[in-house]
């Protein structure tokens, strides 16, 4: 048994670190395949002595996040475990964990005053590249924050006066139900497809402010078809669900970029709803534009998923199965840089 004393702590910090009903402690036990017991401020680790060398840096990193004023979640613990697992117990692992903690940067606050952070290294890189470059691709699995962060960063830039308006769009691709059979007019038919985008605005601005800014034209959320023939200047533009664009749609959208504007394109190449013989515009663009100076790519991985820890495992299982059967239109290997 190895005993690790957590100095200068409090009951509140210990409860936060190890979670309600020791939820986070259970994640540590499962990952390291050992038994751990917290007695006061002493963490008892049963097993080989080297386990302590691998576990202590993780706990220290959790403490550093807490001391930065952040609430520790299961996804935070899982991310730290994965970030240090390949180099566990080495100086390189501690350096990588330090980078993870340092990457936790506040982007803005919600309308209720809650801080919104870049939670992973790729999220921090995404944040930095969007600020620096006029065209950024964020490609990765569901739950890694690529769309949510893109919208939040746009709101932050508009508050600072860096852009005059935000334009958010996505292709309306039917997946199981025909739009023609859905009730209501065109707006009522397409609104369900755009709901996740509204939710992000409501989170950071509130429903009332979002509606007022939408009415004034400062925020526009519309289907991709509405972008044809337009030039978008002094704007922050996001194309979401870009994996469901065709090559022609993607080219049309990319050429809408006007003066003093930024464009962010997000998508998940493992969830393409196009007909099998139609090439995804996102996969095609990532291949064609990969070496163009001024265009940046951020490839998220399952380790960046910040939803429930089970979501990571679900995505990985599907990727293992689908990877054996996918054709070239959506295979992730096509966009790795």
Main attributes of the structure:
elongated, alpha/beta, single chain, disordered C terminus, 337 residues, six-stranded parallel beta sheet, three-stranded antiparallel beta sheet
Secondary-structure map:
Layout: E1 2-5, H1 11-18, H2 23-32, E2 35-39, E3 42-46, H3 50-67, H4 74-85, H5 91-103, E4 105-109, E5 115-118, H6 121-132, E6 135-139, H7 146-159, E7 165-170, H8 186-205, H9 207-215, E8 219-223, E9 235-239, H10 247-254, E10 262-267, H11 281-288, E11 295-299, H12 309-322
Parallel strand pairs: 6-10, 6-11, 7-8, 7-9, 9-10
Antiparallel strand pairs: 1-3, 2-3, 4-5
Helix pairs in contact: 2-4, 3-5, 4-5, 6-7, 7-8, 8-9, 10-11
Report on this structure.
The termini are far apart. The longest helix has 20 residues, at 186-205. The chain is built from twelve helices and eleven strands. It has 337 residues and is of the alpha/beta class. Helix content is 43%, strand content 16%. It has helices at 11-18, 23-32, 50-67, 74-85, 91-103, 121-132, 146-159, 186-205, 207-215, 247-254, 281-288, 309-322; strands at 2-5, 35-39, 42-46, 105-109, 115-118, 135-139, 165-170, 219-223, 235-239, 262-267, 295-299. The strands form three sheets. Strands 8-7-9-10-6-11 form a six-stranded parallel sheet. α10 links the parallel β9 and β10 (262-267). The radius of gyration is 22 Å and the shape is elongated.
